[in-house]
Design a protein that fits this description.
Blueprint (H helix, E strand, L loop, with lengths): L9 H13 L3 H13 L6 H13 L3 H13 L6 H13 L3 H13 L6 H13 L3 H13 L7 H8 L3
């Protein structure tokens, strides 16, 4: 990026952070993110999500949570996409207490979970072999006036047994 006459903007940096994450290189993703900040570019929700996803994909849940806290300390508010990303990686790592903490924080911040967020939560419990909790989450969706379960909701729930 430095060799180009054009100055990279947030889209360029976010794309590189995302690419590093997809390549499994969370350290380079973190370095690129820090370089973006050093160049005076303020991260937005998409760039923070790309970083958290890169770190979480590598199984570094504690580091992901630390970066999330860093994001919050800067005054940035998480959105439902960021919270869903963190739920996904905490669940994949089998850290169900962390899943519960993220879900609580999501509600404490008055974020409204969408169907993808609920499906991710169901998948967390399916992965943890907890069919009762997965069914409970599906029940929450069914009782909700705002969220309608989709085929993925039922598919993830049936994978618990």
């Amino acid at each position: 990026m430095k060799q180009s006459k054009e100055r990279p903007d947030i889209r360029h940096f976010t794309a590189v952070v995302d690419a590093c994450g997809k390549a499994g290189d969370w350290i380079d993703a973190t370095d690129v993110f820090q370089q973006m900040q050093l160049e005076g570019i303020e991260p937005d929700a998409a760039s923070w999500n790309a970083l958290l996803n890169a770190i979480g994909t590598a199984g570094q849940v504690e580091k992901m949570l630390a970066k999330y806290k860093e994001m919050c300390a800067t005054g940035k508010q998480p959105n439902i996409v960021i919270m869903t990303t963190m739920l996904d990686h905490a669940g994949a790592a089998g850290e169900m207490d962390t899943v519960k903490d993220i879900w609580k924080e999501l509600h404490d911040r008055q974020l409204v979970p969408d169907v993808k967020c609920y499906n991710t939560r169901i998948h967390c419990y399916a992965t943890a072999k907890d069919p009762g909790k997965a069914e409970e989450v599906l029940g929450e969706m069914i009782q909700s006036a705002a969220i309608t379960p989709d085929a993925i909701s039922f598919s993830r729930w049936t994978c618990t047994g």
